[in-house]
């Protein structure tokens, strides 16, 4: 067995390449959900909608789900939904991605795919719309995590793509995030979703999941910020047993503009800790959105972040948080806080 690489690398010096085939091969649940099942989903008794959602999704998968990998199927009480798609509507940390991954694992399908909204749109951008349709045509199941409702162009491309696939028998399961501290947004998340994908609205059954963030972290919590000395010591210690990245914040953010978002996952290939020096507040929204996409990949890979400078939960200024990408930024903040605590 080849020993794991150790030492320190600079992400801004990497220029990764990723073929369409490699992008498709990566469309599986992220590492923390590789073993997710309905049985391992712990429904909170104080929120009956969690158990109800679980039962509905078991039915969606064909009437039952394995008690464990290789185990026997059990019957769900609910009748199988008649619609080809289900949409999981709920806030941060209520287990939507766990349930979505459980759908992926439990569905008896020959061809199935699991990816975030940005992974699917990045694939369209990389290989073209028609090739993407041809690639997915005949698939049994598409799972779409964190369906983005803030980019009309991408939303319409996905709506068109999903419409073509549903017409040939593909089943769909999707989630999108709503901040738990925005009750008004939470109440209307399902309507937002169905309105934005109006051409497909009749294909989805909405499954509401109430509850609080299981991580018990406030969205406005603070990320851990290190002094220069603490940062150097943390990276040096981590580099003894694994590969660690060390970049200036401005340097990495500038480099992200040179790399297609579909390739961000390759930027962190082999890395065990991400280091960011001199973190600063964003002034450019395009740069901020690219960083959000990068944070998604870091979070999916369950990589800890070590940082100096401005607290990472404060990199998005108030005017950005008050704008149309509010949900996306709040999700990134939640993930940044978690990553600095890891």
TrEMBL record:
Species name: Microbacterium koreense
One Gene Ontology term of the biological-process aspect is: cell division
Keywords carried by this UniProt record: ATP-binding, Cell cycle, Cell division, Nucleotide-binding
| NCBIfam families named among the record's database cross-references | ZapE (NF040713)
Which residues lie in coiled coils? none
Underlying gene:
zapE
Listed InterPro entries: ATPase_AFG1-like, P-loop_NTPase
A Pfam family of this chain: AFG1_ATPase
The lineage, from the top, is: Bacteria, Bacillati, Actinomycetota, Actinomycetes, Micrococcales
Identification of the protein by name: Cell division protein ZapE
